[in-house]
Design a protein that fits this description.
- By secondary structure, the chain is mostly helical.
- The chain has one domain.
- 84% of the residues lie in helices and 0% in strands.
- The protein contains 4 helices and no strands.
- α2 packs antiparallel against α3.
- It is elongated and about 60 Å long.
């Protein structure tokens, strides 16, 4: 019974810490930078920057950019629940 209450307090504390971290000016600047990088990848794709001399080369370049964009999106959409899901 006590262990459950302690776990609830720890979980609440982590949520508060996460919200504070998301609101911190450095975090906001980091997220702005990451958003800009994601948009830069989109623009590069739209401008054909991932084209290559062969279909294979083009696929590799495109897959790399898609992977980077996917990671950026994952980071940019983090919330305190993201960490709860990972622990299960």
């Amino acid at each position: 019974m006590v262990a459950i209450k302690v776990a609830e307090v720890v979980e609440t504390f982590k949520e508060v810490e996460f919200k504070e971290w998301k609101q911190h000016p450095v975090t906001k600047e980091l997220f702005k930078y990451l958003q800009d990088k994601r948009e830069e990848l989109k623009e590069m794709w739209a401008n054909g920057n991932f084209s290559g001399p062969s279909i294979e080369e083009m696929a590799i370049r495109s897959a790399g950019a898609q992977g980077a964009a996917s990671v950026l999106e994952e980071i940019l959409t983090l919330d305190s629940d993201s960490f709860k899901e990972e622990r299960k």
